[in-house]
Amino acid sequence: MGNSSKKNHKNKTMIQAKPKRHMITVDLEGQEGNAFYLISVARRLANELKMDFDPIHKEMIGGNYENLIKTLDKHFGEYIIIYRK
Questions:
Q1: Beta partners for residue 26, in sequence order
Q2: Cα distance between residue 66 and residue 84, in whole Å
Q3: The CA-based dihedral angle spanning residues 66, 68, 69, 74, taken in that order and rounded to the nearest 10 degrees
Q4: For residue range 4-42, what is the model confidence (pLDDT) as tens digits?
């Protein structure tokens, strides 16, 4: 019993991998494709990630709709999946 007890203790670890963040999905063909909604998603993610939203916001609104989507993907692509027809 002494041996198996030590073995079990050695297999337990205090350090665990951080769970992956849940991916946000956005369907551009629906109501989620609204520019104001996309900006709000970017604002929320920036706040959660402790990022300065102001320069991201300026970049998002500094061009057309395609620019807004590309900027969203550029800054938050690892946290968001964007669907388009």
A1: 82
A2: 12
A3: 120
A4: 444 445 556 677 666 566 789 999 998 999 999 999 999
